[in-house]
Amino acid sequence: MTSVPANPQQASADASPPALAVSGDGDSLALAGALEITTLDEARSALKKWSRHVQSRTLNIAKLDSLDTPGALFLCGLQDKGVKLAGIRAEHKSLLDLICGLDLKPIPQVESTPRWCQLVVQLGKGSHDFRREAIDLTTFIGRAANWTVCSLLHPGCLRPAAISRHITETGIQALPIIGLMAIMIAIVIGYQGVAQLRPFGGEDYTINLVAVSVLREMAVLITSIMVAGRSGSAFTAEIGVMQTREEVDALKVMGIEPMQVLVVPRIIALVITLPLLTFFADIMGLVGGGAISLFLLDVSPVQYLTRLPQAIDGSDLFVGLFKAPVFAFFISIIGCMHGLRVTGSAESVGRETTRAVVKSIFLVIVLDAFFSILFERLGV
Amino acid sequence: MNTRTKAQAETILSAQGIVNRFGRQVVHDKLSLDVARGEIIGIAGGSGAGKSVLLKTLVGLRAPDAGEVTLNGKAVLTIGASEKASLIGVLFQQGALFSSLSVAQNIMLPMREHTTLPPPEQEQIAAMKLALSGLPADTGIKFPSALSGGMVKRAAFARALALDPKILFLDEPTSDLDPIAAGGIDALIRQLNGSLGVTVVIVTHDLTTLFTVCSRIAVLVDRKLTVGTADTLMKSDHPWIHEFFHGPRAEGAMKARKTGHGI
Questions:
Q1: Which range, of A159-173, A279-293, B214-228, averages the lowest pLDDT?
Q2: Distance between CA atoms of residues B235 and B228, nearest Å
Q3: Is any Cβ of chain A less than 8 angstroms from the Cβ of B100?
Q4: Closest CA to B185 of B144, B145, B152, B215
Q5: Domain for residue A4, yes or no?
Q6: Nearest to B188 by CA among B154, B156, B139
Q7: pTM for the complete prediction?
Q8: One domain, residues A65 and A169
Q9: Chain A residues near any Cβ of chain B (below 8 Å)
Q10: Position A309 pLDDT exceeds 80
């Protein structure tokens, strides 16, 4: 093979990095070796001292073994300053001609505005964006609700395959992590409860504390936040990538409404899934409460089960489960809206996904606070 | 070191006994290819023949299931990152410009990583590469999303040239381009090869590029490469190769070749 004899030569050439030597003095210097991107600094500093006052400066490059484009650019720069190049080898001539012949202009600088100016501009942009976002969100909620109701009234338009795929992905695959989180949260509340109630001799009420807070608030909140992070982001990324690859435009051209095939199945799937996941989290949270009771309060599982009905009633369960579909609706709407808002680049997919997750978790917590007040007023 | 005197016979890229398979599907079956320093070789083949997989194998992005690729006498999978960066440049099919960086930053990225040049000098070199690729200087501050298809190709070209690689791999450099832009890219490849002495490996369907730019053509058919010049391949009696070089579109490209040689 031809490569075998070439090997030793190559190895010796690579062992020593390309070197540059400058010789001569006064008005004529000579370069030898390699003038490449790696030796460019060397060349520049060696030639810096070269006096500008000398009338005719010549640089002999006959002994230059290799020359690359940055090296050629450097030589062209010297030539422009009145240095004469002598002894140009034939193989370097075409390269020098090419590079010196280029019409070189510096890359324009990006205009920068002062800090305080930026602050004002950002503030203005921010408030403008906020207004636009509010309008967008309201419009999108309206359109999505319209299409969802429309699809429900004409069941032929529903996409059962897509809905079941989303139920699998957002629901069944989330079961292990949500179960684990619910147990953990129950344990955390349980520990705090025991520690705070023991001085008053009321540690038995830890069971009430855990059961009520899990059923009313914690299960639904943890599940919603988890689903917003897991599935809301997936909605944005999936639809966003479709948007970058013009798949959404393809749907429109084919006369298929993206709202109907992309958004509605996701909304329906999540509205079905989230209450079920919440119920599952309720059960797992109560299991966690049972574990706490067993280990910290010496309450056996059977006793725990008999205590539970006294601690909680149906309204606790109802309050938690009632919130789930509302949260699900907003999580899926925000996920899909940001997905459809993606433009072009990969960066935009990342940005919109971040926004979707932040916004949906924020909204879940705001709505939860709103519901707390509402239920308190209603006395539920 | 001196590239063009004793050059022609020296092999810079060699692939021996390459086997690539996906599950049971064998894409390349003991395929071999030698590329001499300073030549322009075109790799052609039907859609799905495994051209892109071959390119990935040649540049060391994919370890073949058997066989070895050597670049400049070293196994491609063992070459260090910095050495590899100055040895090969790759123009990806979609350009693969980093969308979060401006065009100039894209070109300066390899210089920033692998050289110690001060930023103003890097910028000067980036401006030179832009001009070399036929782009105006103000393209430098634009972001890839603001460029047209042809400009993306040229900008990606400029980035592939950033460290003056010895071998340039081009994946479909003229696809998706109008004939004028494609002709410009063809001329650019010839010019770079002529002035910089860079070895070029082009993966393409474009018959005009194959006929007017490449000194040799390797056709990927039946999981192997058939290598020859345009003239010898024209006489091949393999049905696919015959069809490829004698189809209605090949005739026009042949004419371009004749006039191209006239210039």
A1: B214-228
A2: 10
A3: yes
A4: B152
A5: no
A6: B154
A7: 0.70
A8: no
A9: 1-3, 6-7, 10-11, 13-14, 34, 36-38, 40-41, 65-66, 68-70, 73, 91, 94-95, 97-99, 102-110, 344-347
A10: yes
- The reply to whether residue A104 touches residue B72, judged by beta carbons under 8 angstroms, is no
Is position B59 within any domain?
Answer: no
Assess contact for B220 and B232: CB atoms under 8 A.
Answer: no
Number of domains in chain A: 2
Quick check: B127 contacting A, CB < 8 Å?
Answer: yes
Mean pLDDT taken over chain A? 87
B209-234: average pLDDT: 87
Rounded CA gap, A238 and A56, in Å? 67
Which residues make beta-bridge pairs with B227?
B218
Same domain, A191 and A301: yes
Distance from CA of A238 to the nearest CA of B (A): 19
CATH number at residue B207: 3.40.50.300
Total domains in chain B come to: 1
Q: Is the pLDDT of residue B255 over 80?
A: no
Partners of residue A1 in chain B, C-beta under 8 Å: 11, 14, 16
Give the closest of A13, A69, A108 to B196, CB-based: A69
Q: Which residues of B touch A34 (CB under 8 A)?
A: 1
User: B236 touching A, CB under 8 A?
Assistant: no
Which helix (H) or strand (E) is A283 found in, with range? helix A264-297
- Which DSSP category does A67 fall into? E
pLDDT in tens, B117-135: 888 888 888 999 898 888 8
Question: Is it the case that residue A111 has pLDDT exceeding 60?
Answer: yes
Token couple for A139: 């419009």
Query: d(Cα B242, Cα B249) in Å, to the nearest integer?
Result: 13
Residues shown for chain A: 380
As a whole number, the mean pLDDT across chain B is 85
Q: Is residue B110 part of a domain?
A: yes
- Closest alpha carbon within chain A to B195: A95
Tell me, what CATH number does A47's domain have?
Answer: 3.30.750.24
Q: Which of A36, A73, A91 sits opposite B128 (nearest CB)?
A: A73
For the residues of chain B, what is the DSSP string, one character each?
A: --TTTS-TT-EEEEEEEEEEEETTEEEEEEEEEEEETT-EEEEEE-TTSSHHHHHHHHTTSS--SEEEEEETTEEGGGS-HHHHHHHEEEE-TT----TTS-HHHHHHHHHHHH----HHHHHHHHHHHHHHTT--GGGGGS-GGGS-HHHHHHHHHHHHTTT--SEEEEESTTTT--HHHHHHHHHHHHHHHHHH--EEEEE---HHHHHHT-SEEEEEETTEEEEE-HHHHHT---HHHHHHHHSHHHHHHHHHHHHHHH-
The domain of A149 spans: 138-378
- DSSP three-state, residue A277: helix
Domain that holds residue B130: 38-52+80-262
